[in-house]
Amino acid sequence: MTATSSTRLAEQERADDVATAQRLRGSASEIRPEIQALRAVAVLLVLAYHVAPARLPGGYIGVDVFFVISGFLITAHIVKPLRRGTFTFRGFYARRAVRLLPASLLVLAFTLAVTLAVVPQSRWPQFGQQIAASALYVENWLLAGNATDYSAPAANVSPVQHFWSLSAEEQFYLVWPALLLLGLLVSRRTRSWRLAFAAVLVPLALVSLAWSVYRTAQEPSAAYFVTTTRAWEFAAGGLTWLVADRLGLLPRDRRALASWAGLAVIGACALLFSARTPFPGWVAGIPVVAAAAVLAAGLPETRWGPARIMRWRPVQVVGDMSYSLYLWHWPLIVLLPYVVSQASGARGRVAAVALAFPLAYLTRRYVEVPLMERYRPGSGSAHVRPGVIGVAVACAMALVAVPALAADRTVEHRREQAWAELDARVAAAGDCFGAAALDADCAPGGDVVPDPVIADLDDFGILNRGCQVRSTTTEARTCTFGDPSGATSVALVGDSHAAQWAPALDLVGEERGWKVTTYLRSGCPVTQTRPAGRGTSNEACGVWERNVLRALAEGDFDVVVTSALAGTVYTEDPSGVQGFTDAWAPLLEAGSQVVAIRDNPDPTHAGIPSTPVCVEERGPLGCGTDPGRSLRADPLVEAVSQTPGADLVDLTDRFCVEDTCPAVIGDVLVYHQAQHVTTTYMRSLAPSLGAALDEVLD
After folding, report:
1. Is 3.40.50.280 the CATH number for 459-599+634-650?
2. Is the pTM of this model over 0.70?
3. Cα 10-12-15 angle, rounded to 5 deg
4. CA gyration radius, the chain
């Protein structure tokens, strides 16, 4: 190659790089292949995570990638007209509404209709509340208030739980124009408009990031959803746009390397992050910076760069319909098993995602694109657009939210009747009610109580608020049951699986003259080995346990009764046995008798995520589980065998009969959700528990 040709090639490459920089600085509405490709990566990560979370445990970072893209594009949409003097709040919000709301409200309306048609009424109140919250774009705050764990496969998971991220984006759109307007005011006093806008975005990003780190350590479940802990991710996208055209002047090989590196880091995070990763916090900065690198790199044209893959038609198609694909996939995953019982499990999730693709395509073609084309800037309807769109959006949101909230009222009358029937049946309990039916020749003779619509409320933790502490509480709070003036002092200690025995122990204490004092905390067995957990909540668990063990050692208790979720994972001792033996030793030395109650069967481990829903769908006889699958190995059993002086109470025969563990025994619903036992069935176990305690106590 001659020197002249080399010079021409260098000049051509320089011209191409300048064109790239101009494109990066160009119209915010221009379709950029690298952004569409990054959208495709983000949505495919989320879909893969929801289909097979064990295979891609960190796939949830796709949402963080979306946040960076949104910050990048929306900052461009606002700053450019601000600098030209053509920006209007009404026009901006109208365009955002046309772009996002029709498709989302369509999916919400579909979800509500299917819920009312096929979902058991016991799920209507929760589903209805979340559909309404999603229609009003406050779903993230509702989930945060409920302390929902996004990565936990809950039995009552909502079909619109994924709307939390859309709610956060809409809230971001509400405040972002005002913040950038402040940047415009600053720019009039500076020489550089970039520095002016950065002067607004950088402090916001730093404050939000610091808040995110703090909240993730304190309350990880709430921190995951709230807008204030995510604002820095949008700001990161905005800051990337401010410098993208400057970075576009860098040599294309460097930009290609940055693009590949960003994609590789995103993939590594999806593989290496998990439910145990403290998130969002500072850890979220890794995929956020990686996504920003891909955006800043643009589309470098090199032989070994990612441009060819990014431009590949299937990648662009997925990127084009990523929004609709995100909207559709999760309602289908949750609702399809209600329509087709065989659609549960991994195969059902795959089928749901496969169905989401054609629905997303149709939504993109016939809803998103036509409306965007009709109401694009400069169209003939521009002069009426904001007002018309505002009224239409308000009406559409009301048409979804009002019926969704009415679903709760529809069930309210049934709830009232259910509580009255429960009270009457408990008052008239005989030899065929609850656990007593196991010792009598009884046939099912009445409706199931508690009715599935109130089953989740038939819980000791709800009926006795404050007795079972949670979150970051470290105080060894107590409640008293049984006979308050009884001569025998009994302590009930442990997590929610210990707490559920309180109603039975209360009746036993009344009958035998025992004063029962409770020390109960959600997710926190009383042991010397830490349960696996995230952030300060787990640290608080350890402090609470030490306070409880100190109170027990000083409390002169005759008996300490404990139980724990058999499926708890421990960080130091995988079996969990040694932690219990170490915790019991000082109690035994202090003269207390330690009695451990073996944990009850776990229907979720046998494939029944929600017993009330199952009973409402299949009837009382259709939801029993195989003892081999639902009875999990309990470290308390082994701990008792290794601890001289400790005793075991095993009431498995009150939950399982021969080759099945019924969902309903003596017309009483055994579980109110997951593997927690209803208060009603626990109270029916009082005679069995009392007899078992009599056998082991001195």
Report:
1. yes
2. yes
3. 110
4. 29
